[in-house]
Specification:
Distance between the termini: 43 Å
Strand order of the largest sheet: 3-4-5-7-6
Strand content: 5-15%
Structural class: alpha+beta
Radius of gyration: 24 Å
Helix content: 55-70%
Number of helices: 26
Number of strands: 11
Shape: globular
Amino acid sequence: MDKKTVENNLKLIVDYNNRVNSSLKEIYSWVANDNEYREILEEFLEYICLESNDETRLWAYFRLIDLKENSLVLYMEKQWFSQEKIDEILDLSYEYTSEFHFELQSDLIDFIEKEKLLTDFYLEIFNWVHSVWKAFNDFFLPWRNHIVNWVNRDLEKKFNDDSSKIINFLNENNLLDLWHFKEQADRSYSALCYDENNNFISKSYVEAFDFEIKQIVVALDIFITNLEKQTDEIYDSKKEYLEYLNAIKNAFLETDVNSLVAKWALVDETWMQIKTPFQISHPLEFYEDKYRKAVAPEWDLRIQNRVFESVVEKDILNMYETFYKEIWKEKFRDSYNYSFANINRVQLYLTSPVLYYSSELTWLFSAQVVPNDDVVSDKFGKKIFAFPEMVLENKRSMPFMKFSSIIFDSKLLDNYRKYLFSDSKNFYKIYDIETIGHEFGHTLWLDLDNETIMNKKTGVYKNIEEFKATTGWLVAYFMWNNLNLELSEKLITDHVMRTIWLFAYKKVNEVEPYYCEALIHFQLLLESRIIDIIDNKIVLDFNIDSFTNLKETYINHYVDLINIYLSKTDAMEFLKRYTIKEWLYYLPQNEFLRNFVNYFYETYEKVGNEVDDSISKDKYLNN
C-alpha cells in the first residue's frame, strides 16, 4: 500500500464515521415516537435512574449523542436535585456514554480492518489508541470527583467563593506546580490532597490516582511493544510515535511534583514531531479546573479531513505586523519575535475526531491550538486542529429550540438558519475566519511568561484570553477582508448568535472563559449599535454605518487589550472594565446589559430544554 492509497482511504474512513454519526442524529426523531432508537434512550435513562418521558428522552439524546451534560444538569436543577444526586447521575451518564461510544468505535476499527484501508502500522495505532481507552476512561471520573467536585468545592467553602482569596492561598502555600524557571506554572499535572495534619499538599497523578495511572501505563507499555514490531513504510514516523508514547508513560510515572511540568513538556516536544495525518492526542486542555488548571485526562485520535484550504493565516499576520509598526516593535522585541515565530511555525490540521475518550465524552471541541506550554512552543511552534465537517453536521442536527425564538428577533434567526442549512461554501469560509482565526489569535501578543504573570494574582487569565483570540480574527477581517458585505453580514450574524448563546453557560465552571468572552463581546456589539434589544429580543441592524462603528469599536478595545498583554498586567484589570462578579458568577458592568443576561438565564432555566416543533428544517433545506 502506498501513501496515495492510504490518504485516499482516509476519506473512506471519514465517510463511514460520518454515516454512523448521521444515523445517531436520527435518534432525535424518535424522542417522542416508539421504535428501536427510542429504546436506546430509555435504556440510558433506566441506567441513570431517571423516568422516561418526552422531556427526559430529549436530555438523554443531548447527553448520549451530542455529548453535552448541561441540558441534563439544567433538568436536575429544575427538579431541585441535591448536588450529591446531580454528581451521581452525571457519573452514571458518563459510564453509559463511554460504553456506548466504545462499541461504535470498535465497529469503525472492524470496518477499517475488513476493508484493508490501512497499513499494519496504522491499523495498530487505531487498535491500541482504542485499547488504551479503558484506562483513560476509568481515570476521568476519579479525576473529576477528586479535583473539581471535592477539592475545588472545599476551597470555595473555606474562602466563601472568593476566587482571589483561593488563588492567594494556593500561591502563598506553594500549591501550584513549578514551571521551567522554578516559578509557579500556568497549569498543573498534580492534585491537592490532605496530609495527616489536614493540610493541603500536592501529589502527582500517579500518587493521587495510583490504580488508574498504573492501568494507563500498563496499556501504554503494550501499545509501545506492539508498535515496535511494525514498520511505518508510508510516513517513516515510527521513531516519533514511539518517543511520544514513551514520553507520556514517563510523565505519568513522575512522582516529583516540581518536575511534572518539565516532564509533560517533553511529551509536547515529542508530539510536535509527529506530522502525519494520524494525530494521537494527550492531555491538551485544562478548563475543567479553574483554580490550579489541573490538566484533565484526554485521549483521542484525529485523522486528516481537508474539506477546504484555510487562507486566514495571511490576514492574521498582516494585522499583527500593522499593529506592531504602530506600537513600535523594538520596545517589545521579545514578544514580537515569540509571537511571530509561533505563527510561522503553526502546523494546521483539518481533521475529524474518529476515536475520543475520557474528558472528551463530556464535550467535543470545535477547534484547538496546542501545546499550552509556551517554552515548547518557543522551540517547536504549535498545532492548530480544526474540525469543520463535524461542527457543521452538529449545528445542522440540533433541533430548533423554543428558547431561540424567545431571545432572537425572527429576522435574525431566520437569516442565520438560511445560511447554516443552505450555504456550506460560506459556512466553511466563516469557519476559517472565525474558528481557525480564533486559534491563530491565541498565538499573538505573547512572551514566554505572559500567562504565568497575568494569572498570578487573580487566576482569570483565560477569561480574557478567549476574548483576545476571537477579537484577533475579527480585527484582521475588518482590516483586510471587509468589502464583501454579504459575507460580512453572515459573519457578524454568526458571531452575534454564538455570543448570545454563550450566556447559557453562566453556571458551567469549565467554560467560564467563553462565557466571560461573551459578556465583553455583548458590550461591544451594543456599543457599536449593530445589535439592539427590543422587547427583550436581540435584533441585528447590519448596515454600512453600524458595520463601520463595529470595526472602530473592536479595534479600539483590541488596542487596549494589546497593551494589557504587552505590559503583562494582571488579567483582572481588563476583565473588570466589562464585568462584575455577583456571588459566584460574572455579569456585565453595565446595568442594562446585566438585566438582559439575567433575563436570558432565567428564561433559559425555564424553557431551555423545550423543542420548537412549529418550524420544520425542510423550510431551510429546500432553499
